[in-house]
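Lab meeting minutes (informal)
Scribe: AK
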Amino acid sequence: MQTRLATATVLLATLTTTLAPLPAQAAAAPVHPPSAEHGWVTSTLRHMSLEQKVGQLFATYVYGGDATEPTAADRAANRAAFGVETPAEVIDRYHLGGVCYFSWSHNLDDPRQIATLSNGLQRAALGDGAKGRAPLLISTDQEQGVVLRMPAPAAQFPGAMALGAARSPGAARTAAEVTGRELRAVGIHQPYAPIADVNIDPGNPVIGVRSFGADPTLVADLTAAQVTGFQDGAGASAVAKHFPGHGDTATDSHTGLPVIDHSRAEWDRIDAPPFRRAINAGVESIMTAHIVVPALDPSGDPATLSPTILTGVLRGELGFRGVIVTDALNMAGVRAKYGDDRVPVLALKAGADQLLMPPDLALARDAVLRAVATGELTERRIDESVRRILGLKYRQGLARSPLVDVEEAVRTVGAPEHLAAVTRVTDPTLTAVRNDAGLLPLPRADRSVLVTGWNSAAFAPITTVADGFSARGARATARPATLPSDAVIAATASQAAAHDLTVVLVNKAWDTVVTDPRGTQRRLVAALLATGKPVIVVAVRDPYDIAYLPGVTTYLATYSYTRAAMDALVRALHGELSPSGRLPVTIPTAEGAGSVLYPYGHGLSW
């Protein structure tokens, strides 16, 4: 432990002294006296109609890269989903309190476009400046690693489990601070991060590498560090998720309703610590999970709809006073027991404030209005949530200046000092798990190298690794083989037999239920090993794959497939970087049942 603390202290000092200050326009949101916040919130709320108040509770996606002039396809998509054609009209019709950006809704192309879109949406929200109108809270899922929305040139840091492998709160804070500053520069206020879930189930289909790891103390330390980085460093609103803890489930709440069987004592020991630390660090928002935790609430309702969990535990026991935002209401987990008209009403009755992405926005809005009209919800209850949301907007500086400087956004996103920070944070995360044959590090040599396996069109890790070998004098061939057919497996193995060395990337090869139901990645690795030529296997997502790849003697984990992760991999393979990452989870054997293949903290260096 002392060694880990010393290492973290040294790295924190290094990051603190080497991360150059950012332009003032991208710095933290201004701090305002509480009395000024109270006055603005009270005045704004007093001038709102009930319809405007209810609109403030909702945050959803809109289609298009421009607020008033989206493409014809995006106009059609908005018309089908919302009954109007432009993002600006969606905001005006529903009095939206928030918008969530996605690439699939065509909101995220480049810094200039994103900043311009944000400004256009804010103008639509404020309209003619009449009292009672409020600026938007704009969000996106910028967890980094395998879940990131902002495309290059934005800084693309390693995700949570990679940061867990580095064991450095300083690095975690740096990643959050730089990420938050780039988001704020383009008008995004809520990153929907960090992940506070403790991933103790290797078969977790939805969290996995999105978690910092399997140790509650490590997860708590890094969660608190990222809350501080986002909020104190960048002025963004951190969102710790997914309360009360989504780390021990074999069910994806996007497609089903998970049940967490932890006892109350286990929940206190495993799941609660990261959320407690986040709250102590001043986290502005916490996102709910669509999971059932009988030890906290035996009703069978998901936490998102549970007054016992949200009001009793989160607000009452943990003392959280910020904004509770639901996970997306179009997910199956929250729709399993109740209709789409009941879910938003029940979430508000449970204690939620911000209702994210209902499957039918008009139906959800009307259901909340009807609940107020019938007395199921009071307007006072609506006011409580709107006050919290408006207070958050005020602390973000949106009452004073909701627009961003587009040119400053272009200069800030992907700034050289940000990209340098990406490399510094990424390098210590690489974890060497197995080097039984002593193959690594590789000497520079005129050898033929085949780089194959899982690939991503957006990140092209296969090409990045092959180019790295070529730059070091090898004759490298890139042959993507993502979930390959039998014919592709045979052809790839034949090609590998004609090369001196093969590097194969795998992504969740352990998952033969959803990700790779035919087990193609396992069969590809087996075929490559059968050639008798040296094979290096690299897990570019979950580190657990090694348990399902018998015969592999050289194995590394990068936890993500960003360019920085692949660059670090190539340097480590050639001895230019000594791997220093340590497993932040335990890797069990394929048989499971408590048997350990590699323990928590394992990692090799050279």
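Next up, CB showed the second protein from the same session:
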Amino acid sequence: MSSAPDARIDNHGRATLWLASGTVISRVTGFLSAIILARTIGTVGLGADAFTVANSLPNNIYILIAGGVLNAVLVPQIVRAARAPDGGLSYINKLVTLAIVMLGGATVILTAAVPLVVAIYGVSYIGTPIITLAIAFGLWCMPQIFFYGLYTVLGEVLNARKMFGPFTWAPIINNVVAIGGMFVFMALFGADPSGTMEAGMWGPAQVAVLAGSATLGVLGQALVLTLFWRRAGLSFKFDFNWRGVGLRSAGRASTGVLGIMIAGQIAFIITTNVMLGADIGDASVNVLKLSWLVFVLPHSIITVSITTAHFTTMSQHAISADLPAVQRDFSEIVRTVALPLVLAMCGVMVLSMPLARLFAENREQAGALALVIVGQMAWLIFYTLIFVAQRTFYALGNARAPLIFFTGQYALQSVFSVIAGLTVPSHYLAFALALAQGIAMMLTAPFALYWLGKKLGVGLDGRRVSRTLLACLGAGAGASLVGWLLTTGMGANAEVGFGATTQGSVVTMVVVGLVMSTLYLTILWLLRLPELRTMAEPVLKRLRA
């Protein structure tokens, strides 16, 4: 008979595998969507940057007004409400009703205010063609705010009921619809992979097809979650009686998260305005977004999946004031995440050039994108540590500490970005902004971890966590050296030859990825890393049977 801890780990493993599978497919289709978009309107140029600004606004503003608040507050609040006789159903209906009303009102107001909002994100370029085109795109994209909010509310309620899959798999619908819209665009108006379309070539029909299909995809992503509520034992009806069910405590808990969102958006606005200063044809806003898409891929597949699978349990431990158990949860998450995450980080850096060729029209564009990818990916481990620390604080009901250290991080990023804008040549500006963001993370992570250790009072299991991180980084360095030599030898970093083609890039990534993975895991096995042996034990048992 399995012990309780073994059963808990097995449940977490199954949940993590299910989440990771959905995230992998979601991110792969998201990658495919980004590649097709690059082949549709290019990676640089007026259309690419204007659409990137407009299509990013709904998500950024949604995060500012509700997203982070809902993510941080919903699960712990619903876990607490589940102790009620009705299993928390009354609380859920009231909370969802409130969210729908607030999101609906905000969406109507912000859609009407698109010209003002776009002007804020591009204040230095008001009256230029890029802002005019971004406003046209924005009028179609801004309604996404409501559907992003609905997706988060419905999904987090399902997560709190330990039904993790739908929330993770739903974005696939978004990506499929968006890809379909791009194919329709190319069929009707042709493709512009070099990004040379001028403002006058973008008519209402082109704007409607591209931006309208993007919004339609977000709508589908949200509505599909309603199909799973009955399976989770839920039935929704509007309930406008919001008093007396603890919503005030949710509001208090969300104050710190809202502050983080405001600080983050200020930093984003500053970065966007600095980045729009790059010359047309140089890496700019869209390149920075593409590199960020690559950066968050391993984070989403690995870190978010593992942390989400543990978060409800961690919240239960925190509610019970079992701080040693919270420490064990934190340590288990970081050590479990580190093993695959470091391999992904090293692999993407080594393969940045062949990866960038999938998006870019030519070698120059690929080189610019690859440089920015390396500039961001180098800091992934710090981003992960801050993320896990933040989620642990939220489980403990403490939003004040993350507010302070994130505000400091965004302030540093903003200062470094402005300095880069004033001193760095246009050709390297995107790379400099990636470094600015990463250095701010590196300086923030130790402070956040120290504060969390003090809050727990039992430390962070630092010896085991450090040993795992150092072993993974050492193995990653050895695998990276071999991977870089192999990548160069296959011609993937050259200007011409098979390795420099799209097909050659794919072959290189497959071959080098397999070699690096094998070497990395072999080194960790020889180092007797406990986490690897724990993961490998079920496979070894099957092979012995």
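CB comment: The chain has 20 helices and no strands.
No objections, moving on.
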